[in-house]
């Protein structure tokens, strides 16, 4: 297979905007896998074989002896196969386990006997330049192969299709000048970093006995290795590093890599807050917190941030990648991917066990999500809580999943800090050159239990017996340096004493430490703030646009380039859109959305929309991307606008990973409207961890504001239990402390205004929108031109479409979403003149004040009903009941309580039978309007179930 085929991802860059060519012809994909014997072609193709014959003949001194020539050629082929197998499988014989407990049968095909060289160590064979040799003895070749591929580092790279990548890694391993070599000063620096890591953990264990810290004990080689990433990365163009990691070793990384002051961490151990008392928030345990800092190596400054995260393993991974992507965009680094580097630190059990790891690996070559390669560092403790590897996975290594994206994998013995540091140096060189993911699998151990109060010998007595007897990393390494004459026997104790003295001083300073500044609203967030008055901050935000901009956007959204062949149905859609702008009426949901996006872009904001079908829209409603019907080239009207940037991506089929990515993007860039759209809102529960741990609680726990928008198609149309409910009740349950905004909007103009409000307010909160399905084309769900202009703004409450005098109203039906139109239509059909239908467009923060004011004007009000489509145990009822009751009390209707009109409680969100759905829908509408009592309607509904 020629080199021209090996273009899997090394030069993928990041092509923004339209992609040329048909959708199935992706130039980054290999059509065939790499041949397992590809490297043998250099010994077997005719030219090389002729060379072997000539060299063998000359060596034999008998150019006409066919047997000598044949034997020499055969020896050469077998020698090359030996080399090939060590390149492929040598890692299986590497010395990786510091404890020596991992017993693996050495592959038979790595022996000289298997290759027919038994007892022939002195035989010379032609190898054509391998390891710098033309001719070499079998014994010397074998010795070099063992030293190269079976030492303290094992390399897996022959699964990579790209020849250049393989040769780069091969050269780094096989050329003496590129192997593990450090100066005496470098070795002392490595030792010093290991000692800092060890003594820091010991100090914490001594000062805070029994306190959980999830220490790095046993894996301290990671500390100098991560410093190597900073040092060598900065020399190769890196100016910013974003880290994500779980508990294990986090406090050590915060202190000894990130440079978070020791006294601050000690202050937190003593029960103090990481932020000033007046900031508020719930805070979080020490080993979930993040930080940001600058470090300088060789005169080059690198900004680093560690993203805060919950206990949910690997959940932070996509957040880091999204944040990196945003930082690359802001640094104009999306093509080169040189300046901003993601580094993810994993546990072995989590890397193998958590599906989100694969979702994130899958982003590595996808347009819109590619970050130019991530360095993955696995802290391989060889245990997951109490579970041994053989019960935790079916593959030899935890890193095997990374082979799916052809990432090279470096297995390394954690007791050799030089080897671990070399692996990180090689990783940054590879990433900066090829812009691809790479994995370091550091085999080490966990000196204590899952946490420091745990007793690991309950479940792994033999392992922990070995650990108790095993010397620490610094002892092994310092003894080696003394033996090599790099340091004397007093150097390591001196380094320890000096560092302990520093810790003692910091410990004393922690007593008086008081944080004076909260770690937020800096950098790109400057000018934004936390709203002091949550109620007032949401009123009177000017979100309307000028008529001139409105008309200009109309032309952009309806003009097809002359050289673009549009789909005939889409042309009809665009013709209808043109009519909207001509007449100034009938604006639908998709057009209002495009106006919001376009106006924000024109005003200099970014807009990033992603989801599984976001370009076209799940319901063929958006058409943000126009596909040429002859060439499949893309035209994106909103990309033609000046000032800001519009991006729309059809995402990988992942909720968890993509939502986390977009959350991370919004975390870094508050000047962009970042939206994630579920195919159906029901599917958002595949990302529930991101919703619970980050979106709902991130600001309270970590002081990390976020303006992410979630678009969740929601509405009961008779499409069954998995295509009806975005689980509105779950979001409302999570609402507290002004943490996010939840809306169920019914008009295109109101949708336009809420999207613009999201960016024009001086603060950011996650926005959850129950977007419609049938309302996308509903004849009543239309808006007129004037609703986008003048002094119009987002309406938290939408009044009745029919004007009814307040004093005339006896029955008020409150609702949210699509059911409002069903109620209005039925009410008008029945001619009910004393029944008003009011839609609550924003459910949280609940608009209690304006609702109370409205209720106060209804002096003859007799009954307030809450109507919803969802079953009683779902939807908004349990959330709004007390809110409505409070509004009634404040309005002078203190003795009145709201009643419920909706479906019965149900385990499944919706029925899958169309007739049953229709009967239930009619029944709940009748109950809400007072046309039937609940009992009668319920009986009718049950009889419909039997008929169905």
UniProtKB/TrEMBL annotation:
Pfam families: E1_dh (PF00676), OxoGdeHyase_C (PF16870), Transket_pyr (PF02779). Signal peptide: none annotated. Homodimer. Part of the 2-oxoglutarate dehydrogenase (OGDH) complex composed of E1 (2-oxoglutarate dehydrogenase), E2 (dihydrolipoamide succinyltransferase) and E3 (dihydrolipoamide dehydrogenase); the complex contains multiple copies of the three enzymatic components (E1, E2 and E3). NCBIfam families: 2oxo_dh_E1 (TIGR00239), PRK09404.1 (NF006914), PRK12270.1 (NF008907). Keywords: Glycolysis, Oxidoreductase, Thiamine pyrophosphate. This is 2-oxoglutarate dehydrogenase E1 component. GO terms for molecular function: oxoglutarate dehydrogenase (succinyl-transferring) activity; thiamine pyrophosphate binding. Residues 1-27 are annotated as: Disordered. GO terms for biological process: glycolytic process; tricarboxylic acid cycle. InterPro entries: 2oxoglutarate_DH_E1, DH_E1, KGD_C_sf, ODO-1/KGD_C, THDP-binding, Transketolase-like_Pyr-bd. Its EC number is 1.2.4.2. E1 component of the 2-oxoglutarate dehydrogenase (OGDH) complex which catalyzes the decarboxylation of 2-oxoglutarate, the first step in the conversion of 2-oxoglutarate to succinyl-CoA and CO(2). It comes from the Bacteria. GO terms for cellular component: cytosol; oxoglutarate dehydrogenase complex.
């Amino acid at each position: 297979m020629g080199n021209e085929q090996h273009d899997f991802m090394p030069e993928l860059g990041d092509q923004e905007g339209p992609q040329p060519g048909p959708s199935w012809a992706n130039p980054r994909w290999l059509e065939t896998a790499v041949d397992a014997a590809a490297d043998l072609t250099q010994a077997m193709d005719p030219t090389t074989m002729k060379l072997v014959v000539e060299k063998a003949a000359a060596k034999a001194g008998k150019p006409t002896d066919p047997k000598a020539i044949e034997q020499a050629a055969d020896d050469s082929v077998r020698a090359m196969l030996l080399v090939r197998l060590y390149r492929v499988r040598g890692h299986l014989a590497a010395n990786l386990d510091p404890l020596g407990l991992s017993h693996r049968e050495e592959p038979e095909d790595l022996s000289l006997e298997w290759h027919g060289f038994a007892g022939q160590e002195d035989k010379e064979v032609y190898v054509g330049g391998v390891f710098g040799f033309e001719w070499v003895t079998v014994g010397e070749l074998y010795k070099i192969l063992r030293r190269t591929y079976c030492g303290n580092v094992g390399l897996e790279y022959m699964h990579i299709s790209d020849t250049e990548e393989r040769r780069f890694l091969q050269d780094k391993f096989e050329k003496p000048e590129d192997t593990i070599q450090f100066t005496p000063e470098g070795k002392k620096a490595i030792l010093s970093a290991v000692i800092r890591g060890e003594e820091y953990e010991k100090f914490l264990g001594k000062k805070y006995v029994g306190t959980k810290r999830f220490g790095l004990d046993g894996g301290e080689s990671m500390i100098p290795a991560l410093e190597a990433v900073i040092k060598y990365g900065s020399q190769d163009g890196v100016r910013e590093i974003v880290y994500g990691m779980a508990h294990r070793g986090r406090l050590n990384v915060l202190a000894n890599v990130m440079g978070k002051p020791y006294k601050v961490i000690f202050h937190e151990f003593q029960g103090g807050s990481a932020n000033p008392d007046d900031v508020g928030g719930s805070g979080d345990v020490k080993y979930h917190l993040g930080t940001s800092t600058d470090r300088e190596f060789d005169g080059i400054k690198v900004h680093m941030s560690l993203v805060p995260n919950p206990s949910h393993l690997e959940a932070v991974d996509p957040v880091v990648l999204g944040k990196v992507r945003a930082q690359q965009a802001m640094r104009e680094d999306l093509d080169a991917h040189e300046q901003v580097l993601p580094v993810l630190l994993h546990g072995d059990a989590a890397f193998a066990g958590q599906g989100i790891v694969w979702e994130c690996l899958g982003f590595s070559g996808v347009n819109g999500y590619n970050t130019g390669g991530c360095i993955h560092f696995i802290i391989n403790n060889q245990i997951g809580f109490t579970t041994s590897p053989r019960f935790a996975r079916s593959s030899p290594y935890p890193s095997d999943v990374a082979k799916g994206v052809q990432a090279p994998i470096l297995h390394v013995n954690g007791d050799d800090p030089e080897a671990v540091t070399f692996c990180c140096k090689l990783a940054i060189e590879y990433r900066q050159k090829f812009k691809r993911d790479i994995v370091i699998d550091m085999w080490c151990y966990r000196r204590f239990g899952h946490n420091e109060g745990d007793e690991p010998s309950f479940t792994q007595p033999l392992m922990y017996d070995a650990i108790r007897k095993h010397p620490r990393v610094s002892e092994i390494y310092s003894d080696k340096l003394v033996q090599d004459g790099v340091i004397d026997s007093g150097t390591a104790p001196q380094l320890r004493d000096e560092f302990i003295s520093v810790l003692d001083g910091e410990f004393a300073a922690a007593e008086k430490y008081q944080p004076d500044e909260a770690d937020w609203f800096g950098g790109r967030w400057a000018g934004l703030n936390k709203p002091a008055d949550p109620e007032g901050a949401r009123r009177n935000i000017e979100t309307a646009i000028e008529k001139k901009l409105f008309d200009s956007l109309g032309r952009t959204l309806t003009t097809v380039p002359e050289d673009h062949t549009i789909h005939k149905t889409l042309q009809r859609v665009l013709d209808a859109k043109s009519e909207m702008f001509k007449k100034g009426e009938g604006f639908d949901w998709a057009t209002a959305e495009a106006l919001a996006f376009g106006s924000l872009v024109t005003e200099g904001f970014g807009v990033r929309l992603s989801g599984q079908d976001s370009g076209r829209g799940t319901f063929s409603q958006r058409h943000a991307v126009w596909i040429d019907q002859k060439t499949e080239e893309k035209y994106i009207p909103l990309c033609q606008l000046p000032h800001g940037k519009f991006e729309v991506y059809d995402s990988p089929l992942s909720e968890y990973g993509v939502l986390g990515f977009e959350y991370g993007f919004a975390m870094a860039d508050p000047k962009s409207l970042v939206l994630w759209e579920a195919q159906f809102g029901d599917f958002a529960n595949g990302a529930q961890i991101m919703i619970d741990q980050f979106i709902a609680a991130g600001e309270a726990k970590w002081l990390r504001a976020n303006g992410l928008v979630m678009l969740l198609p929601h509405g009961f149309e008779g499409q069954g239990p998995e295509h009806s409910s975005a689980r509105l009740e779950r979001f409302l349950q999570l609402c507290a402390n002004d943490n996010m905004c939840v809306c169920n909007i019914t008009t295109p103009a109101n949708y336009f205004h809420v999207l613009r409000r999201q960016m024009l307010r001086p603060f950011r909160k996650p926005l959850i929108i129950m977007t419609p399905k049938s309302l996308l084309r509903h004849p009543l769900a239309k808006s007129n031109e004037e609703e986008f202009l003048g002094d119009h703004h987002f309406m938290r409450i939408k009044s009745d479409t029919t004007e009814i005098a307040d004093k005339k109203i006896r029955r008020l039906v409150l609702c949210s979403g699509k059911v409002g139109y069903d109620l209005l239509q039925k009410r008008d059909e029945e001619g009910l003149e004393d029944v008003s239908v009011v839609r609550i467009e924003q459910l949280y923060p609940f608009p209690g004040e304006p609702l109370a004011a409205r209720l106060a004007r209804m002096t003859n009000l007799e009954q307030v009903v809450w109507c919803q489509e969802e079953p009683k145990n779902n939807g908004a009822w349990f959330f709004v009941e007390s809110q409505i009751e409070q509004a009634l009390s404040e309005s002078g209707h203190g003795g009145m309580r709201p009643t419920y009109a909706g479906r019965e409680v149900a385990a499944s969100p919706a029925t899958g039978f169309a007739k049953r759905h229709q009967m239930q829908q009619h029944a709940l509408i009748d109950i809400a309007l007072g046309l039937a009592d609940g009992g009668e309607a319920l009986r009718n509904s049950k009889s419909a179930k039997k008929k169905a």
